[in-house]
Amino acid sequence: MRGKSGYLHTGHWMKDLVTGQVRSGVAGAEIEFANVSDSEIVAYVASGEPLSVAGGFTHEGKSAAFINRMTGDSPAVGGISLALLRKFALDMSIEWTQLWDL
C-alpha cells in the first residue's frame, strides 16, 4: 500500500436484549499511505507491530506517521464506529446518553 490509498470496512451489529430489535451496518474510512522507504518498512516489520494488528498497521502506533490522511469514519479504523452505534441506538429509541452509566 506504499504511496497508495485503500478503504477499510468494519462491520457492526447491535441487538436490544429487551425488545429483540437488531441493527447492522458497515462503517469505514479511506486511508492514504505515505511513500515510505524500504528501510522504514523493514524496521516496522522488525518491530513486530504489524504482526499483531488487523491490516498490519495502526493509526495510533508506530505506523501512524506512515498515514498521510484518513477520510470518513476514522474511529472505524480502530474497530468501532461510535457514530454508527449511536444511530443504531436512536433507531431503537435509546438515547446515547442512556448508555453512559451501564
UniProtKB/TrEMBL annotation:
InterPro entries: ITPase-like_fam (IPR029001), Maf-like (IPR003697). This is Unannotated protein. Its cofactor is a divalent metal cation. Gene3D superfamilies: 3.90.950.10. SUPFAM superfamilies: ITPase-like (SSF52972). Keywords: Hydrolase. One of its GO terms (molecular function) is nucleoside triphosphate diphosphatase activity. Coiled coil: none annotated.
